[in-house]
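DM from R.C. (forwarded with permission)

"hey, sorry to bug you on a friday — could you get me a structure for this? deadline for the figure draft is monday and I only need the backbone to look sensible"
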Amino acid sequence: MSSTDPDSVQRHTALDAVHRALGATMTDFAGWDMPLRYGSERDEHQAVRTRAGLFDLSHMGEITVTGPQAAALLDFALVGNIGAVKPGRARYTMICRADGGILDDLIVYRLAETEAGSAQYLVVANASNAQVVLDALVERSAGFDAEVRDDRDAYALIAVQGPESPGILAAVTDADLDGLKYYAGLPGTVAGVPALIARTGYTGEDGFELFVRPEHAVELWQALTKAGEGVGLVPCGLSCRDTLRLEAGMPLYGHELSTSLTPFDAGLGRVVKFDKDGDFVGRTALEAAADRAAALPPRVLVGLVAEGRRVPRAGYAVVAGGEVIGEVTSGAPSPTLGKPIAMAYVDAAHAAPGTAGVGVDIRGSHEPYEVVALPFYKRRK
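My reply, with the result:
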């Protein structure tokens, strides 16, 4: 289906038949029919932590920006210094409204220059925000010698994540994976098909994201499955992707990030680069937000670990001394810690790790929680 189809029409990735053949439980996510799990989400989670997992992420939104002023456009449209990104590297950044509110968090890859010498970038947006980001970039491109192209139909995206992922990928490509740094991408051939090979991910583990044409998705998935047979690779759905990113302390748009928060409110002010050349959308509002955060720290994003077994959910109140001091943004049982965990924005006075007397209001019962620094989990390198 084309990306111009109405939102009411559910979209399917190029791997839809593969997921159904594997017995996946499917779910609607941002208008896409996506695999939630194939069997046990706990087993899938543990496979990524200890071996490797294979994900279909073809619902993500790819937008290509090219032209002589592509870098200048992105520096104006986004909060990061995209012009400083070298070819073959990637940058985590955000696109904000004029009032500083976060429209989405993004990964921007700088690809090789075109034959005409123009810069070329691949902007990857969250599935639920892809159209919003595309519309904003098109609107902000006025006056720049650059083209913004909707490439959501041009790519399938497959991720292999986990400690065994370098060996699995090495079995089906001759690309120099040893030389591929974290947050870098290079063109190569994987299982005989052309791909952008990126060392990025959303699990807290080493891993790769492979951008290929949709017609090559099935053969690539099958080749990776075969290469991973001997080391415990399993297909993984969106459910374990959420618990993996939660353990790794990675924000999710709509939970830790929203238009009602600036990057400074979210504790991610580091992505805003005031020292880059020229103006950018939201600069004035973000300068004011930075000043406010320095003078009076906003609520701080912290980790919470349950002392009991009850699981906190997004929107639950965080309490201390009978007062509401914050709100849970994400919560789930942690397969790695063996306890329920949550991320929450709490008042700065209660944000220090080990702060006593903090709880979560779960249906009227104030359940005790320990305040910890994020992330909950960090892989050994």
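R.C.: lifesaver. The chain is about 20% helix and 35% strand.
me: no worries. Residues 283-295 form the longest helix (13 residues).
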